[in-house]
User: Fold this.
Amino acid sequence: MSTAARASLSRAALHASLGDPVLESIGFLNEVMGRHPDAVSFAPGAPHPAPYADLDTARYLDRFLDHAAAAPGRTRESATRLLYEYGPAQGLVNEVVAEALRRDQGIDAAPDDLVITVGAQEAMLLTLRALLADPGDLLAVADPCFVGITSAAAFLGAEVVPVPEDHDGLDVAALAEACRAARRTGGRIRACYVAPDYANPSGSRMQLARRQALLSLAEQEDFLVIEDNAYGFTAAPGTELPALKALDTERRVVHIGTFAKVCFPGARVGYAVADQRVGTGHGSGEVTLAGELARLKTAVTVNTPPLSQALIAGMLLEHGGSLAEPIRTRAALYRRNLTHLLEALDREGAGGVPEGVGWNHPDGGFFVLVRLPVPADEALLEAAASEYGVLWTPMAPFHVGGGGTHTLRLSCSYLDPDRIDEGVRRLTRFLRECAHPGTGPSRRYGTSRPGNEGAPK
Amino acid sequence: MSTAARASLSRAALHASLGDPVLESIGFLNEVMGRHPDAVSFAPGAPHPAPYADLDTARYLDRFLDHAAAAPGRTRESATRLLYEYGPAQGLVNEVVAEALRRDQGIDAAPDDLVITVGAQEAMLLTLRALLADPGDLLAVADPCFVGITSAAAFLGAEVVPVPEDHDGLDVAALAEACRAARRTGGRIRACYVAPDYANPSGSRMQLARRQALLSLAEQEDFLVIEDNAYGFTAAPGTELPALKALDTERRVVHIGTFAKVCFPGARVGYAVADQRVGTGHGSGEVTLAGELARLKTAVTVNTPPLSQALIAGMLLEHGGSLAEPIRTRAALYRRNLTHLLEALDREGAGGVPEGVGWNHPDGGFFVLVRLPVPADEALLEAAASEYGVLWTPMAPFHVGGGGTHTLRLSCSYLDPDRIDEGVRRLTRFLRECAHPGTGPSRRYGTSRPGNEGAPK
Assistant:
């Protein structure tokens, strides 16, 4: 047969979510990183690998098996078999996770209120799928926003409504207005996604009054809050704020969590606490929303790998049913890195940076934002990588509602202090030489102004 | 705050896929199984646990780490870190899997033509998401059909077109007609799902000419074939037929596979071979469809757990880069069980079963279908469980286009021969006493005929 008959596809003929600018942007960033392996990269928000050296996975597995074998009617042999079989869709270790949530975060949930997922990402996709039932069902997000939630919405073809945030997180009055605006056009805000503590990418943090205002609005406007709590653990001792779910007396919050940052990302274990009651329509039958998410999970991954669940549960059991101790050491590592990054920026920047360059000073999380007087676009990123050996993440793709064009994100999570120092030296030189309106590399490398190449003026 | 303000949800207000009769049916089956733990259950299609006793996961992991550490620039330490980090979305072990596909199934795929997924289920969801771009894009399925693919379609709100099959699998002429019918209404069949070998649930098998006819039609009508190859390995030596992907010279087939049956299901490792070329729209840029599926994966699970991938790759490496030997022993186990089940049915049935009762005699796979002269519905299942101590799966939920109401599915995969014997004795008594039109328990227990209770006539 001729090769002309071969199936040929174009991205334009595939699902629209594949054309998502966020995916394009991630792809470009990875590609640039691949071409510049010696650059100091402030791009990845991945956890630091140092704690992996302490992971005694054989021991964690053993701990889980001891625990599982102690259940009535169970032997060590039948417990081991749990690792190899499919297992329950809702999860194998819900009881252990529920206990840790109670002890570490003051979240009171029964095992049936939880579904264990393949990372927090699957929990987001399942939650959106359950709640966004009709085309008029909208997801509000704090803008800028973690790309995992917007890509899950795009995967489902669901519409996202950006709500501005300030240093203290989501603007609740603006969300109230978005609810009214949605109603006027026949739609409704069905859920609102927020990361209340040191959000990725903005680093914003909701203070207590803001958290309570959001919960009140959720009740008033009848939507659910999807809380992503990935960075709350980085708060300095004494500065912790309660999770929205710990404040939620009315079952308005679906709390999504991950073990990627405190245990390890390769486990791919996350969860949703979804204690909302769902009427099944069969008489007085009622199930939890978590149970409904588990039913949807049969269409996605069927089960979260039991071996992964066992490792996480074993780690929890090894630490007495709580993650307090690993949280303490990990949080100290990330605060050290963040402080180091901010001090280096302030120190190097004191030598002078162009007008309009500045950065925020978050007190937790993985991220620092740098404002520029020039667009922080792909051309500028290419120049930073090839000429200065430093990489960062453009902020525009995180902004659903537009904006962020002149901001870049630095992540401090994956680097060691000496690499941070070297990276900040390179970054400062880059800022000094390139962050001048009309003269930076984005102008020189951009396609819109050929002939405008040359040394910065 | 009053409890009246608590978020209350009804299933009817959640996404329509939660109301899928298939999910309801699975839920009911699980619930009946839970209430009758001593019943012999022919319901679960899960792999037999015996091979788990031979799984030396520590050794497999070691094998993988040896292999990974031998890569240029890699140490044993950095290889170990691969297990704990996120890793590449497209997969960590593509090269090892591609080599096994070449050796075991004659499928010639480059590592970049593969994406490693959380079970075959995630591969199905990703493939459907990529291909079903518009509401008019339809998925054709052989009817009856594996519920994993129809639930993935329901998750995406995509429309499914059932195409009848016979003993030799999908009716290709009927599919051609479905393509024409779709065009007349402004839609198009974008993909067709088939399990060519011993399909779940029907046990049908496509002969070589049928396979070739399907590939020709795919080319003619410009759709892709989604091949699910879960049961091909059970073919008796000398009776193997080539996978559709091994016959596919024109990149018309997306081949979906699983390691659940030959390795172990708890790993949750599957894959898609998607070597189709996709134009990105950026100049002459071209990527593989597998790469596109990996991009979509960031919205679903981000990565397949590297530890799971490492275990599977280690098992492959331990067996010299091929699964031929485990395939041989597993296939022998399942053929022994299937033969045992069919012999027991024929032997016990020789004592007499009601008119209209009969079963097929597949020569591979996990499943046998039993036709009844009465509806094989939930009421009949309840009676089989509570009065006869035997469980089976009603076939109707597998039929997208209606039908299957008078058929039940028996699975032989999970049981041992003595349990199969006991189960068939119970089943035969149940068939003798209940499979009489108008008199069986489905009439006695059904809600539609109150007052018709009493001993079978």
User: Anything to note?
Assistant: The longest strand of chain B covers residues 137-143. The first helix of chain B runs from residue 21 to 35. Chain B touches chain A through 85 residues (CB under 8 Å). Residues 310 and 330 of chain B are 21 Å apart (CA to CA).
